[in-house]
Amino acid sequence: MAENNNSVVLFERFFQRWMVSQEHHLDELLTTERNCGEYGEKKMTDLVSRVLTHYQLYYEQKSRVIERNVFVVFSPPWFTPLERTLLWIGGFKPGLAFRIVAEAVGELSEDQRRRMNELQEETRTEEKLLSDELARIQETVAAPPLMELARQAGRRRDGEILGSDSVTELLSSALETVVRDAELFRMSTAVKVVEILTPIQNVKFLGAVGRLHMKIRTWGLQRNREGGAND
C-alpha cells in the first residue's frame, strides 16, 4: 500500500531528474546539428540511440504509474496546466512527429517521402481507432466524466484507485489497456520515423522535438509563476 501511495510522488521526482537529462541531450543535439561536418554518421547514430533510450526510460517509469492509477495520466501533476491541454490519451499525439519532420528536417528523398506518407496515413488511422475506443469505453460503462476523475487523482497525488465501485474499476481496467496501447503507439511511431531518416536528419528531428518540449514546458512554468503572482 505504501508503494502505491508513493507512486506518483516518486514519478514526479524521477521526472525532474529526467528533465535535467533532457536538457543535456538537447544541448548535445543542437551542438551536433550546428557542427555536423565535424561528426561522423556513427557518432550521430549513437547520439540518436541514446536520446531514444532516454525517452524509453520515461515510458517505462510512467508505466508503473499507469498500473497503479491510470486516471492520473489524463491530468498528470508533473505537467503544467498548459502542457495538460495538449495531451492526447495521456501523452503527445503521434501525428505531431510528421509536422516536426516537415518543419525541421528539410528536403526528403522521393523514397523517404513515400515511406513517410504511408506511415502518416497509418498513424492517422490508428489515432482515430484509439480515440474512438476511448469514447466507446466511457459510453459503454456509463462512466463519470473522465477529466473529473483525473483531477481527483491529481489532487490525491497517490497511486490508489479512486473508489471501489464496479463502474470505476471497470473503467480503470479498460482505460489502462487503451493508455498502454497509446504509449506503445507513441514510441513505435517515433522509432519508425527515425528509421526513415538519415543520421543528420534524425539529429534535426529530435532536436526540434526537444526544443518544442522545452518551449512548452517553459511557457507553462511561466504562466504558473504569473498566476501565482496575481493571486
UniProtKB/TrEMBL annotation:
Domain of life: Eukaryota
UniProt keyword Coiled coil, yes or no: yes
GO molecular function: sequence-specific DNA binding
Annotated ranges, domain DOG1: 8-226
Keywords on record: Coiled coil
Keyword check for Lyase: no
Coiled coil spans: 102-129
GO BP field: DNA-templated transcription
Protein name from the UniProt record: DOG1 domain-containing protein
Organism, as annotated: Vitis rotundifolia
